[in-house]
Amino acid sequence: MYFKDTYMSSETLQKLNWRYATKKFDATRSLSAEKIHILKEAFNLTATSYGLQPLKMVAIQNKELQQQLVPFTMKQQQVADASHVLVLCVETEMTSNFIETYFNKVASVRNTPKAILKPFETFLKDSFAEKEAEEINQWMEKQAYIALGNLLTVCALEQIDACPIEGFEPEKYDTFLQLKEKNLHSVLVLAVGHRAEDDMFADLKKVRRGVGEVVIEM
Ligand SMILES: Cc1cc2nc3c(=O)[nH]c(=O)nc-3n(C[C@H](O)[C@H](O)[C@H](O)COP(=O)(O)O)c2cc1C
Questions:
Q1: Model-level pTM?
Q2: Is the CB of 165 under 6 A from ligand 1?
Q3: Rounded average pLDDT over 185-196
Q4: Nearest 5°: CA angle at 180, between 178 and 186?
């Protein structure tokens, strides 16, 4: 069934239509501490496969540093002008120790006896041990994309302007931000802040294939 007025009546859809990939931020405006707090919590609340959270987010609010990121970001000025630049990173490897730390946390947070958790813990340790490093990296990067999607939706709901950015050089970010030393590898960038009043992209109509084309009902 097609709901004629959904586009207009759903607050959620209105907010999702409000958001767009911001091309020009107002460099004079900063997001409030509360909005940044919401984004950090939303990142932490992101669902991940097995709940392992092989992710970290670097939150940069430093105009000098941000300007220096521009050449590593295909010259995209958004990273310089945004209020904050969020760099979504994955672990460089999934160690048995990492998995153990997760299960210890489950046990303490939920008061679950370790004996109940042990079979699943052993299964996960064994299954990751059998995988190639590249396969694990790809799996972790998928988790970073889930976090990006979650953050983009939260930005829409919270009226935070954002530009998701894949157009950057992860190796250069890793070196410049000393991520390798933290056992991290950058995967995605999200510039957040306030749109500039003259960002012409704000008024462009959404280009989408349409529900009739992208949804198959069975
Ligand atoms: C994973 C991902 C990477 C993207 N990378 C860039 C980017 O590097 N630079 C940019 O300006 N927009 C980037 N975009 C924005 C898309 O071009 C944009 O979301 C798409 O054209 C739909 O437009 P809208 O978000 O304004 O509705 C990216 C979007 C996604 C989801």
A1: 0.96
A2: yes
A3: 99
A4: 85
